[in-house]
Write a structure and sequence with these properties.
Elements: H1 12-40, H2 46-76, H3 78-87
């Protein structure tokens, strides 16, 4: 009987990569949707297309990347390690 393939453990880094993959797909779809809207409205020029595609794509990726880094930090234990530094300081 062949052995069943075991699933790889879900490490924070693999979860980050998967999240960024889905985010990249979503960013491409949103960029295409924005360009399609501009095409339907008859305001699509080369400059508008480049600005829209880069603006939408980079905005989505920046926002998602920052959120993903927060999740990565939380899931990998970095937040717990850094939290003991704030416990020693008195409140002002």
């Amino acid at each position: 009987m062949p052995h069943a393939r075991q699933a790889a453990p879900h490490t924070p880094r693999s979860q980050f990569r998967r999240l960024m993959l889905f985010t990249t797909i979503a960013a491409v779809l949103m960029s295409v949707a924005a360009a399609s809207y501009l095409y339907v409205m008859n305001v699509l020029t080369t400059v508008t297309l480049i600005a829209t595609l880069s603006g939408v794509f980079l905005s989505v990726m920046l926002g998602a990347g920052l959120m993903a880094m927060g999740f990565l930090s939380s899931n990998s234990g970095h937040d717990e390690w850094a939290s003991h530094f704030s416990d020693d300081k008195p409140d002002r």
